[in-house]
Amino acid sequence: MKRRQFVKNATALTAGGLVLPYILPSGRLFARTNVPKAEYVVFVMFGGGLRQQDSILQRYLADSQGFNIEGNILYNILEGAAPASKIAYGTTPAGQPNGSQPIPKILSQSLQKQGTIFAEMRAISGGHYGGWNSLITGSRVEGQGLKVRPINPTVFEYARKFGGFKATDVWFVGNTISNSIPLLNSSKHPDFGLEYGANFFAPGVTFGGDGIEALSKAKIYHPQEELEPMYKMKNFLDNTFNIRKGEMPGIKNTDEEKTQIKEFISNTFQRQAAGQIPMPPVSGGDGTTIGYAAEVLRVFKPKLLVVNLSNIDGCHSNFTGYLQAMHKADHAMGFLWNYIQTQIPEMSGKTIMLFTPECGRNQQHNPVQDENDWYGYDHGDANSLRVFGGMVGMNVPSNLMIGNESNPIGKVTDFNLTIADILGYKDNVKSAGLIDPEAKSLFDRI
Amino acid sequence: MNMRIFNTVGVMALIMILSACKKNTANYGVVQVSSKGTNLNKDKDKSNIEFHSILSTNLFQKPSSINELTALDRVIQSCGDKALINEVIISNYMNKPSVKLPSRAMMVDSTDRFIEETYIRFFIRRPTVAEMTWFKNFINANKSNPNFRPELVYTAFAASDEYMFY
Asked: What H or E segment, with its residue span, contains residue B3?
């Protein structure tokens, strides 16, 4: 082959390789606008309201209860020595004081060492639902009411519309069905909406007592002999009925995806009964939610999974419980990252995990004291807008700390755009014009 | 004399009959319609509790308790794909011994009646001619499949979009 012909062919192949794979195989409508940074994203909404002073600033009881005792109780996430006295953040062995046994560290290297931490970011809202909305939608809408879907598109809808992902590629695992959490899997925006929404489970309910009663004895039909004719009849009935006369109340999976999810539900009950769900060594509450999130990751290997934690919010009335919940959530996050790296080969080394709370907590305590006479903290003041966040994994700079108390860098609305940046459709999201105009990908903040 | 009186009375009676009020035959515009029509204008979605209250009545001939319905409502809220989770709940129902289903023989031998009764049971309407034809053909085509049972037809109806609306 002549040199000129070779160069011509090579150029054409390279150009084709850049464009065609993103349009043809998946049927996606939008070409990637940037080179993806990783194949998978896991986003942990590490929340319930996390006070900067007690978390990343590692002041333990020094900046909250008047004891001069500092230390790091998030040692899977952050570097720093644990508190040396008044240990109340751990578990409670029989006959021992409450919280006196710290949970052993899971990760050999903290997420801080492995990735990048944004030490002083700004939240949009000092409340939970406004905070979740800002994380999920990347927008500044603070007045979002409960019991309604977000006004602006969610991170899931951007992923499905611009990333071309199918429904089982995009998951939201919630810790509860309260506080309108189940409504965060899709917005009501006319250009996006349920058509692009995420699959959602609240494992505490889906696989809890109510779920066992309602779902665990479901028949598994034969795919060809039973399911195929059943779906043919259902599809005929659905085509006859004009669904546009009303809006479907949930997202839609294809028949094939439905079969896959039904098998997942059935298998999960069996694995649950056999004690095979991958739970953190210390589970319960948020730990259990993380365990089921790990199970979703193991089975579906979704491109995007968002998981919400909230036990930390017990701080309103129980500061000791808050410390324990924070410590357990750190343990659960360490477990999740370790599980992805060691137990899911398809995702290991190809995933970025992001984490941040939806809001912080107040500077001043409230009058409620717990069993240790420690005061609770609410959220809503300026201190509640102080949060930290981070990311770890493929293409994330390691051992990097960005910003500090006197130099805040980054906003919670950055996470939506960061996910778009990681998965390769950042400019599409920006062009849609529905996110915080000041939001940036965290990679662009480094 | 008597004859004259008789004639007078007769004439008066004749006048009264001819000039009397006529029966009012007002037209109120009432048209005969079937209470189970073929209309598809269902545009209000059933709440989770309404859906399963009606479904359990359709399948078990008795309603669920409010505690059962509340628990089901929680489970449905805990899943993003409502249609999917309803299908799982329906198949869970189908595993219960108290579910009341027509026999396969009835479906195969009295197909027209089976289709019409199924439409009325689930959709509160009769099938259109096109629907009746499609289902007759489909059931006939699947006669040789021993796994094709009324349970599958009932599941398809209970899981259909139309059944989620009223």
From this structure: helix B2-19
The token duo for A33 is: 């606008």
- Report if residue B111 sits inside a domain: yes
Average pLDDT, chain A: 91
Same domain, B85 and B115: no
Cβ–Cβ below 8 Å for A251 and B81? yes
Q: How many domains does the structure of chain A reveal?
A: 1
| Residue B115 belongs to domain spanning | 101-166
> Is B7 exposed, middle or buried, given 0-12, 13-18 or 19+ CB atoms closer than 10 A?
exposed
Closest CA–CA distance from residue B75 to any residue of chain A (Å) = 6
Do the chains contact at A205 and B42, CB–CB below 8 Å?
no
CA–CA–CA angle B157, A230, B95 (5° rounding): 80
Q: What is the pLDDT of residue A406?
A: 96
Residue B77: which of A297, A180, A255 has the closest Cα? A180
Rounded to the nearest angstrom, the minimum Cα separation between B64 and chain A is 12
Is A327:A64 a contact under the CB 8 Å cutoff?
no
Q: Tell whether B118 and B158 lie within a shared domain.
A: yes
**Partner-chain contact B91 A221, CB within 8 Å:** yes
Q: Which residues of A touch B89 (CB under 8 A)?
A: 214-215, 218
B166 and B111 together in one domain: yes
- Mean pLDDT throughout A330-335? 97
Domain-embedded: residue A325: yes
SS3 A417: helix
* Interface contact A246-B43, CB threshold 8 A: yes
> Quick one: B141 and B151 in the same domain?
yes
How many structural domains is chain B composed of? 2
d(CA A283, CA A218): 27
* B156 contact residues in A (CB cutoff 8 A): 230-231, 233-234, 237
* Statement: residue A21 has pLDDT above 90: no
B28 token code pair: 């109120």
Percent above pLDDT 70 for chain A: 91
Does the distance separating the beta carbons of B85 and A233 come in below 8 Å? no
Alpha-carbon gap: B41 to the closest alpha carbon of chain A (Å): 8
CA distance B166 to B154: 18
**Tell me: the pLDDT tens digits for A54-70?**
999 999 999 999 999 99
Contact across the interface for B81 and A253, Cβ inside 8 Å: yes
Q: Is A221's CB within 8 Å of B71's CB?
A: no
Residue A16 has pLDDT above 80, yes or no: no
Interface size between A and B, measured as CB pairs under 8 A = 151
Q: How far A243 CA sits from the closest chain B CA (Å)? A: 7
**pLDDT at residue number A252:** 86
- In the prediction, which pLDDT does A18 show? 43
**CATH code for the domain in which residue A373 is found:** 3.40.720.10
Best interface-test mutation with A: which of B77, B94, B107, B148 has the largest number of A CBs within 10 A? Answer: B77
Same domain, B120 and B93: no
The sign of the dihedral angle between the CA atoms of A191, A195, A198, A204 is: positive
Range of the domain at A297: 31-241+249-444
Residue-wise pLDDT for B92-130, tens only, equals 999 999 999 999 999 999 999 999 999 999 999 999 999
Asked if A214 lies within 8 A of B95 by C-beta distance, the reply is no
- The pTM is what? 0.86
**Distance from the A250 Cα atom to the nearest Cα atom in chain B, whole angstroms:** 5
Q: Do B137 and B110 share a structural domain? A: yes
Same domain, yes or no: B138 and B119: yes
